[in-house]
Structure formats: structure tokens, C-alpha cells
Amino acid sequence: MLTMFSLTHIRAIVGALLTLSTSATLAGDWKLADLMQTLAQHQAGRASFVERKYIGIIDKPLESSGELAFTAPDRLEKRTFKPKPESLVLEGDKLTIDQPGNRRHTVSLQEHPEVSAFVESIRATLAGDRFALEKFYTLELAGSAESWQLLLIPTQARMTDIISRIRIGGSHANVKTIDFEQADGDRSQMVITKIVAQ
Amino acid sequence: MKQRGRSLILAIWLAVLSLCVLVIAHTRFVADLSAFMPKMPSERQQLLVEQLRDGVIARLIMIGIEGGDAAERARLSRALATGLRDDPAFMGVQNGDAATQERDRAYFFDNRYLLSPAVSSERFSSEGLRLAIGNSLDALAGNGGLILKRLLPRDPTGETLQLLEQFAGDSQARSIEGAWASRDGKRALLLAQTRGAGSDTEAQSRAIDAIRQVFARIPGRSAEARLVMSGTSVFSVSSRATIESEVSRLAIASIVLVSCLLLLVYRSVALLALGLLPVVSGAVVGITAVSLGFGHVHGLTLGFGTTLIGEAVDYSIYLFIQRAGGANSAGFWRTIRLGVLTSIAGFAALLGSSFPGLSQLGLYSISGLVAAALVTRYVLPLLMPQGIAVRDLTQAGALLDRVVGRAARLRWLIVTLLLAAGSSVVLHAGGIWNRQLSALSPISKAEQQLDMELRNDLGAPDMRYMATFTAPDEESALQGAQRTGAVLQELVKEKIMAGFNSPALVLPSKALQRARQAALPDDRQARTRLREALAGMPLKPDRLDGFLADIQAARTREPLVRADLRGTSAALLVDSLLVKRDKDYLVLMPLRATGGSPSGDLIDLSKVSAALDAKGLAQVTVIDLLEETTGIFDSYLHEALILSGLGCLAIVGLLLVALRSVTRTLRVVAPLACAVLCVSAVLLAAGTQLTILHLVGLLLVVAVGSNYALFFDSAALPASAADHRQTQISLVVANLTTVGSFGLLGLSKVPVLSAMGATVAPGALLALVFSAILARVRSDAGSH
User: The complex's ipTM?
Assistant: First the structure.
């Protein structure tokens, strides 16, 4: 009872505001249901990413890079190599954050709905889980199977305070870009390159 | 002359009783857990006791709300918290609400330059700033970008995160729908801190009622929503309620039982009323003696006291039945006197116990028995009708006489029983004694289970390991906590422990706050250094005006004091770990074990002590509370073994002196020893580990049983056959009252009471049976 602090919640939110992704394949007629089905068939993938954050008070974009790995149905891993090594592992309801020199933090998504909305935008997209996406977002699909754009607009107030929209771009089952637009005008852009298994 | 002597005796008796009633009217009756706490604790035990009694931990009530869905439970949690916050009986209520979280955030963010362990003059040099801001930008590029982005303009050096890192690893309640919830999500959780001290059971009881009432009044509450509570104070209140209800229940049941039995034998309401006079007098004198001797009377003492009914009534039974038969008066009183003396010798052993519950019992029983015996000896004969008409027991007497006469044939049975009992005890030799203090606790298993669940869910450390010291004032207490913390931090790095908590983490000493203030640059220096630090970085100094302003505000403000914590959850931390007492401050620093080590969840306290000693912190005591409580119990047990041994020796000595014969003494002692052995064997065979109370019960078997053996012994002396019969009848009736009242005690829900009852009731019965079997065969047996 000595540690009824909500302080580590802050840590949890640190982990919450993450940005992740992967890849997939596809064929056929082009509707949301088709995209989801295509994505859902994709069981696992590994990719490298480069992410740029455009932040108002910083004069130039901040860049980070690393690797992403997705294993159906619900395991997503983001390993950042630069500028500082970090790792995020999302599995089921559990988000585990590791930073060298710091303790490991584990966060339950159920306790943090906004974190949940955030990570589901990526995980549910990769898993082709339309139901999970529509819990937090309205979905709009544009483009063709070769080059599609999925727009996620948050429906819940506590998300719209932070994120105005998420844009996911890809070709067939490959997710190639994920852009987050924040409510304050800052944004981040992640470019994903599939690693072909050797 | 005779008439005057008679009036004098009655006058003295009534005067003493009136005085006693007067004392009792002013007596404080307690029923908390104090009976289990050592009377003369060591310095370490004292800490434990004080924490249980007065510490903040004793003022915390853990509350759970069950039933309904998560959203409903969270709503009830908020409504309950709001209601309780308006009640002056509570200093604070926490349920993980947004407002408290916001106050916590504000406290740590606003005061980061006074609280962060990283603040130093190097960190605020140009080079230090460059390094810290560079790290923040790197982190901004990573996963934590969004939250760090918000902190950056005012906290570019990442001080807030430095500060929070100190608390990483603390477990805490999870949050569902904006309210604390259990791990499994099935309970909403709250933590209330009462204003009244933990030792004020009355205030705690009112607080607990207030919680129930506020909860009951929440509008729209669904019927399936339930409230559960736990904590030291909840235990105190519930054990008091249990003890109170048990004591009155036992007393009534015991009186009814004994009265029925006596009515059956006497067939006279007048004799029954007379027979109860020594009992009532004994109880009144006993309570008075304990009140005067201890300053208060514990409810448990009264519980044990009901057994006095069974014993004190024996004297009048012997008197009425044996005297009705016109037995030898001088011999009769001699036997009674010896019986009282042996009982006193047994109970006197308890007087020396450092277990307060037992020493009260000792005093209560001795004074009660003496009073009962005196009233039987001097008052009853005056009030007794001349020719008392006890029911004609000749028939029963004759039957009993035949039984007793043949009892000697059963001696082979005793030998068999002894062999069986002896082997049972030997079989259990390794685990005869229960070493858990909880074995005595009136708190049920279910209550203990709930307590553990709530504690785990609230992320409360088990408080097993603690570094603790006292200091004359708050400032030196906090400085001491900082010095101790520095040593403990090294031990964390060496993986000797996983972490620790300290009040200085949220409220540093004034000296440390001033040192941190001194490390901060003034406005001109700060601007220059920041400009130098940011050269070549993608961040312009004018974006960080908030940072510069905050540094100056922190540099010039008054150091933080306790009052600044008001409304934050950190206030509870400081209240718990920095305890203001009459003359000094007590600092508690709970230590967290690493877990997963080969030695289990243990901390090697000798290493901790050595490290503290090496840094000149020998005044800091490190304790393992589990070991301390087990230690207390072990010492109680050890002491009780010695005292019981002495008590038995005293009884044997007394018998030797009074009977002037080794053979007769052996004849008296042998059945008692057999009874003790058999009872122990049966308890062990039934899977009961013996506690200190069983041990005391065995001592009482000897003390009470010696009366029977003595009468059998005296019955063997030349006398009329009718006398023998009357003696035997009176013994059986007396035995039945004893077995009955202790038997009732054995049914009690309070473990302390039931342990004693379950030992004495069968023990007393066996003592009588064995006495009959082992009694010297009379020359006239069966010759009527």
C-alpha cells in the first residue's frame, strides 16, 4: 500500500505511443472486405522500417530505424536499433517495453484504452481484423489492389484528442507506409521494407 | 458471639463484592489483538507492535467491491470514494481516480528539480545540458516520442523521467474504467486511511460502519454488488466482535449447563442458588484482580473465565453432597484446601508468562479460585439450611461404588492405552508444536485469504523486510533515509535486493533540496549555457523559455514540506514510512526481495546490516518481520514449556508435603500423567499440532485433575462406606460440570479458546477415570 502510485502509468503511456507495422500479399476485386481477407491470410512477416517524426518545436525530422516482426494472430514486435536500442513486444493483451539500462515494463491494454486503440491500428490491420479496427476507427479504403490507401479516423474522444488520423498505404498484402497525424499538427511517417526470407 | 462472627463474615463478603463491582464498573475491557503481543518486547518486537498498533498501516482499510460488471464497480468505487472523502473520520481515500493521478503528476512534474536525483551542477553545465538534451531528442525519435514531446519544452533534460525511474518496479493496482481493480478484474479496489489510531478499536469500528453505510446509500446500486474489507483494523474489529459474542454465548451456555446438572442432582433451586454463589464471587473477584493488576481486562480472559464456573462450582458440590452425608469435616476441608493449592500452583505458572493473554488468565483463575474456595468455606455453611436435603443419591452411589470397585480390573487397559499414546506421541515427535503465531489468531482462514488477495492486488509489499531507525526530527529522519537509501541503492546494484522504498524519494530533506537548488544556474548563466548546449542541435533556445522559467522558480522557491503533498498518493507514502511519534520520528524503509533466487524470495539481511555498518549507519536496524513474529511465538512456547514444567513440579512438591508419602503422591500423580499423555496423543493423532494453549490446557488437566485424585486418595483412608459413596458421587458431578464447561469452550470459534477447551475437557474426564482405576483398592470394596 506504499506504492499506490500512478506514476508508472506514465511509463505505460510512453510505451503506448508507439508506431509499428509489417507486410502482406493479395489478389482479386478491390473492397475493404477483400483487403482484410488478404491481410488475414498472411501469417507472419519480417520487415525493416525507417520512421521520421516531424515535431513542431524541432527544426528537422527525427529519424529512427529498426525491424518489425508480426506473427498471426496477435504477436507484434518492434525492435529499434537507432538512435537508441529499444524493443516493444505486443502479445495478446500484454505490451512489454524494454530499454537497455531501464527496467522492463509490462502494460495491460485493457487498462489503457487509448494505448489499445493505438496498437490495434497496426496489429489489427496486419491481422486483417476488421472488427478490432472498427472498435476504435471508421475505415475508408481508396486506390487499387496494387496501391491502396486505408484511412483510419478515431471515433473515441480520448483518441481524437491525440490522433486526428492514421494513413496506411500498401500494395496487395504488403503494408508499405504508416503515417500518424497528431491532433496538434505533428506527424510521423514510417516506411516499411519487407525483408525477403533468405 | 456466634451470631456476631456470622454477621461479620457476611458483611466482609458483601463489602468485598461491592468494592469489586465498583472497580469493574470502571474497568476497560479490550478485545483487540493485544493479547497476542509480548508484554516485554525486545527493541525489534517493539517496532512490530507499534506498527500494528499505531502505524499508518494499522489505519488502512482495504476495500473491495464485487459483483456486477466492471463499469458498475468503477462507478460504485467513485461514489464510495466521494462519500468517504466528505467524512471527517477518514484522512484520505484512494481508488486510482483521475483527480489524484492528476495531482500526482502535477506534484512530480512541478517539483522535478527539487525531487530528481539527477540534479547536479554538472548536469546544468553547458556540457551536461548538451548531453541530457541530446538524450531526450534520441528518446523522442523512439517509441516514447509522443509523451516526451509534451514534456520537452519545459523539461528538455528529462528530469521527470529520471524521477519516475526510481519508482519503477513498484507493483501497483491495475486500473479498469478509471478505478483500481484486482488482477483478475473482478473487484474494484479502494484504500481508506482512517483518522483514528489503529489501536482505537471503537473509532475503527465506526469507520468500518461508515463505509458500509455510504456504500448502502449509493443510489441505483445493483443488488449483487457486495462490499468486502480487510486490514489490521478490520481484523481488530471483527475479532473483537467474535470474542465478545463468544464470551457471552459461552458464559450463558456454561451457566445453563451447570445449573441443569446441579438441579438434576440437588432438586432444589435454593441449593442451586447457593452453589452458584462461590462461582459469581470468584468471577467478580477474578475480574477485579485482573483489572487492578493489568489496568484492563482482555475479552479472552473472560472467555477462559467461563471455565472457572465449571471449577469453582466443584467446591460447593463437594460441600453439599459430601457434607449431606455427614462426612468428616476436618478431613474434608483439608482435601479441599490441598485441591485449591494444587490448582493455584498450576495457574501460578501462567502468571510469569510474557504472553499477556496467559498471565491475565493466571491471575484471574488464582484470585477467582481462592475467592470461590473462601466463600464455600466460610459463607456457604452460614447460609446453608441445617439439614440440607440433597436428592437421595444412595442408589446411584451404590452403583457407582460397584463400578469403581471393579475399576481396578481395568489397569491392564491403562497400560495398553499408555503404550498406544506413547507411540503416537513418539511418531509425531518432529511436529508436535505449531510454530505459527497465526495458529492462535482469532482471524479465520477465509479472512486471511481475502486480506492476502487485496494486499496483492493493491500492490502492497508484504512488509516482511524493513530497514528502520528513529530520529529526533523530520529533517534528520529524511537525511537519515537518504544516507540509508544510498547504501541500499548499492545493494540493489549488487542484486542483493530488488529495491526499496523511502519517504525521501517523494519528500527529500530540506538540506538535499537546498543542495539541488544550489546546483541550478541563475537566469543569466542558464541562458548562456543553454545557448552553448544547443549549438548545432535542431532545437532553438527560444523554444525552451518554459524550461528557463521553471529552473528559476525551482531555484528560488521554499523547499517542499509535507503539506505540499496534500491530495497526492505520495502523501500516504510519507505518512506510512515517516511516522511521527510522541518524542521522535520513526522511519520505515521496506525492502523488496529479488525473487527467483535459489533461496526463494529472501534477502540476506546480514549483508544489508554489514553494508549499513560499514557506512556508519549502525543505528539502522534491518528486520525480517516474519522471523520476528515466529521468534515471539517460539519464545512464548519455550517459556510456557518451562513454566508448565515448574507448575507440575510445584504441584508434586505440594502433594509430597501435604501427603507426607511418596507412594500416595505417586498414586495421585500417576492418573494425571496418564491423562496428559493420552490427550496429547489423541490431539496429535487427529492431526492437530499443539499450540501454547494446548500446553496450558494440559497444565490445567493436572491442576484440576489433582482434585479428583486427592479425593480418591483420601477416600482410601478408613471411613464409612456411605462416605465413600458420597465422595465418589460428588466427584462425578464435579467432573461433569468441569467437562461440560470446558467442552463448551472447545466448541468456540476462537482458536485460543477452543484449543484449551478441547484439551481440558477430555483430559479432566480421563483424569477422573484413571484416578478411579488406579485408586488403592479398599479393604471394604464390594462388602456392603
Answer: 0.78
